[in-house]
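Example (one chain per record):
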Amino acid sequence: MAVPRTANRIPTIYQCDSKGRENQTVVADLDGTLLVGRSSFPYFALIAFDVGGILRLLFLLLAAPLAGLLYHFVSESAGIRVLIFATFAGVKVADIKSAASAVLPKHYSEDVHPETWRVFSSCGRKCVLTANPRIMVEPYLKNYLGVDVVLGTEISSYKGIATGFVASIGVLVGKNKAIALRRTFGADSVPDIGIGDRKTDFPFMKLCKERYIVPSRPGVRPVRQDALPKPVIFHDGRLVQKPTPLMALLIVLWFPIGLILTILRVFIGSLTPISLNYHVINLLGCPTTIKGAPPNDAKHSSGKKGVVFVVSHRTVIDAVYVSACLGCMTTTISYSVPGFTEFLSPIKTARLTRDRAKDAKLIEQILDEGRYLVMCPEGTTCREPYLLRFSSLFAELTDQIVPVAIVVKTSMFHGTTARGYKWLDPFFFYMNPMPAYEVTFLNKLSPDQTCSAGKSSYDVANSVQEMIAKTLNYKCTNLTRKDKYRALAGTDGLVGQKPTRAATKVPG
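Predicted structure:
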């Protein structure tokens, strides 16, 4: 959409000088202004799938043509009302807030407009004025971009359930934006900079001392992640890609096919002997790449103490893939894996108790039996190129340590969740058309790299973390399992535990 002719007298954001703005106030629209993308449909679709699954996404997709017609030929407000109703009607407000905090930040952060951000970030006080529901956009804007004031459309609710309608003030477009801005800043306080991208932004822009328009230009590259104030390390939701209308349609069409495919993959993989699992997995359309080579004594037991494979944690089935690549049975341990997932596992599983002494005894017993143990010392999965802090327990109990770097590639669905049903994790992973694993075996630690050489268990754990991070080109962090679950779900990550409070800000 081109900038209207009436906006020709308004300078573009490219002409705005960002120097010396530290004490000034900026007010910006969201879609097409602070974000490169002009459509809010993908973000409604992310919420729809998270709170209502494939049926809610289908409902939104069917409503999208009507929303588009109303938006372009009747009013912007009418189109947005349709999207809000299709996404929110009958949904718990708490679920909407949870999805907005845990799901949307990842996708918003990948679409920040570079020129708008250059000016916006240079100002001391920041305000975003948007037609989108405030409940959707506020968590990302405040927690990740440091926005001070977020003004958006307010949704109505009854006894904690969204009705699908908007509050009495209506959708924040046109004059409603100017009214909301005047109420917030008062008649005597005038924002220094107003930034918009369309004709309906002009009313609020006229209230600002300086006005800039963001022209629609193809090929604009969003701001790099490392140039934003805070990286999105933890995020939730099942959809990998931002669902444009076309992508949403592909997801809906693929879902029944993927459902049949994932059931076949899960149960065939579960029943296949582990020595054949690698070949069967590949035949089922799940390419698996092995890099490096496990030490000889890991494949050919000499009756000595077992070997610990220390793995970077990507999905619940990491240990199964490591075992398949080894071609032999292993044992894996975990804090909280659903019973159904344990039932389906083709390898042995053992549950940790969170009692360090009891857990140490369990691990020692497994190793003393000469079994090969697969451990994920991060304690939980992380989707982004970061490694969480490694527990040092493995380093205290053995010097037979093999670091293993894991890379997982999916195109449609994430095989992990912090807030959803964990027993569905392997099913969502295998629902992807061609989910891929890359397993890299690093060199076994030499005696002088272990506690037997006098090193502390923390030093050994940190060293292994750094080895894996270097191999994957990831960054090491001190974040833990509790940090992730408290940020995304308001729990400590135990299966069946209900949130005791709202999710907290994600550590940066």
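Caption: Residues 1-7 have pLDDT under 50 and may be disordered.
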